[in-house]
UniProtKB/TrEMBL annotation:
Record's protein name: Uncharacterized protein
Pfam families named in the record: CPP1-like (PF11833)
Domain of life: Bacteria
Transmembrane segments: 105-122, 128-144, 156-177, 189-205
Keywords for the protein's UniProt record, in alphabetical order: Membrane, Transmembrane, Transmembrane helix
Amino acid sequence: MSEKTPYEKLGVSETAPFEEIQKAKDHLSQKHSDSFETIESIESAYDAIVMERLKLRQEGKVSVPDNIRFAEHQREINSKFPVSNFKSMFHWIQQFIDIPSFNDILLKTGIFLALSLLVGFLRPQSSLTPLFLALGVFVNIYFLNKKENKFNRALLITLTMLSLGMIIGGSIIQLFYDPNTTREFSQSFVSIIVFFIFWLSSSFLH
């Protein structure tokens, strides 16, 4: 079976006006927005048609709208900064970003805020801080695993966020170091930063 022509890929005839071709491209791109390979195929077909029409225009055989006369220049720019690289990066980022519902945000805010308040109010009993921190770790793993049902991924993200929170919290304490700062206060402060990082990751990461 012979490969489809650019016109066939977009589902238009070779005599179709440019506006129809552009609408077909936009429609297919929207329809297959979740398929990176299909989008690339659609864009390639569209570019091939544009270049063909520009060539025919130079030969005086067809009329091409002025708004695509810079397609060749744009193609040159794209060759230096491939669009596919940006699309691939954007698609990769999208795999990790989640848009939670209001109820989801409310639930996680309540849990991690409660843990933060407990750690803050129970500062004198510093032995309880690691217990609450461990509870926060399990809660974060639970929420992340619930989204994708991938325990190892949830565990890895949680441990990464735990380390990040400790580094940020410890750095802030060092930056604003006070000789009167107690060990209990330092533990509580770092734990609260960790809970905030957990809230962000459990709410906005897959």
